[in-house]
């Protein structure tokens, strides 16, 4: 538990590994046992056929809500499923208390279909700034972590995104068309340019990890839900990358961003993607 007058940095120095352990336990107890074993009544639609929730999402979020709140008394949890049940819960991101931002199963469609391309995302934020993040791919048992100012790591190995290779096509993962407005679709058309190879994204958390590892050059996303972005954006930053909205400002987890926005493995790539999105608009 956090001690009286303990700072967030001091808390993380003592408990970052405890958060990792809680994430692993949530996956081991509530997610993996349900993989490829979901009954029809354990899968529901939210906004539509591509927006799914399962018992694994709900149970893992409940597990993490209890575990993370116990680790940091006075903190609040903003989880995807809790916000779906009560949208007012999201306002805690703009509040005074430290906030855990949780996506229990990022890539629920992939999870439902039995694919391994999903992950669990946790970020700790305070006053609108992400201070630490955890990205866990349970099928492969790979944990990526970042603490602001201390670097990004995958299974203990430091990540360096680095610039793309000169002359190679720019690889960009983009929002699924189902989650874009007509204006955003038009902006994303700007990526259909010579020297750019856009493709639909999978799990947002795993796409951010690919950017941090230098396996993907950039993303271009058109939605703001903090549980999809908070953990990955810090991971990219701490690996040497950056993120920009179409106005050239960093993405804000508190909202009101000019969309689509990009996260990229270096600043030059981010500016190039933003320029293409502005041209498409």
Automatic annotation (TrEMBL):
Name the EC number(s): 3.1.3.25
* Pfam families to which the protein is assigned, alphabetical: Inositol_P (PF00459)
Task: Report keywords, A-Z.
Answer: Hydrolase, Magnesium, Metal-binding
Spell out the coiled coil positions from the record. Answer: none
For the keyword Metal-binding, the answer is yes
Q: Which residues cross the membrane?
A: none
Cofactor dependence: Mg(2+)
Task: State if Magnesium is listed as a keyword.
Answer: yes
Q: Name one GO biological process term.
A: signal transduction
Q: Which reaction does it catalyse?
A: a myo-inositol phosphate + H2O = myo-inositol + phosphate
InterPro entries associated with the record: Inositol_monoP_metal-BS, Inositol_monophosphatase-like, Inositol_monophosphatase_CS
What is the name listed in the Swiss-Prot or TrEMBL entry for this protein? Answer: inositol-phosphate phosphatase
């Amino acid at each position: 538990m956090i001690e009286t007058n303990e700072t967030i940095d001091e808390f993380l120095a003592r408990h970052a590994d405890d958060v990792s352990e809680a994430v692993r336990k949530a996956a081991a107890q509530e997610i993996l046992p349900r993989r490829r074993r979901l009954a029809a009544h354990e899968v529901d639609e939210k906004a539509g056929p591509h927006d799914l929730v399962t018992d694994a999402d709900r149970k893992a979020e409940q597990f993490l809500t209890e575990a993370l709140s116990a680790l940091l008394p006075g903190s609040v949890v903003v989880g995807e499923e809790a916000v779906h049940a009560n949208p007012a819960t999201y306002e805690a991101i703009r509040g005074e208390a430290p906030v855990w931002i949780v996506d229990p199963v990022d890539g629920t469609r992939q999870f439902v279909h039995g694919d391994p391309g999903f992950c669990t995302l946790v970020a700790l934020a305070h006053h609108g700034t992400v201070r630490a993040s955890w990205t866990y791919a349970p099928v492969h048992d790979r944990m990526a972590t970042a603490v602001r100012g201390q670097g990004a790591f995958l299974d203990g190995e430091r990540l360096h995104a680095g610039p793309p290779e000169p002359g190679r096509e720019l690889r960009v993962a983009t929002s699924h068309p189902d989650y874009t407005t007509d204006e955003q679709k038009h902006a994303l058309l700007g990526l259909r340019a010579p020297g750019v190879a856009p493709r639909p994204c999978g799990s947002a958390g795993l796409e951010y990890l690919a950017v941090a590892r230098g396996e993907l050059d950039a993303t271009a996303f058109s939605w703001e839900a903090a549980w999809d972005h908070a953990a990955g954006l810090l991971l990219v930053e701490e690996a040497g990358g950056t993120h920009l909205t179409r106005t050239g400002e960093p993405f804000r987890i508190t909202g009101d961003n000019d969309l689509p926005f990009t996260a990229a493995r270096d600043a030059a790539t981010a500016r190039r993607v933003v320029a293409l999105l502005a041209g498409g608009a």
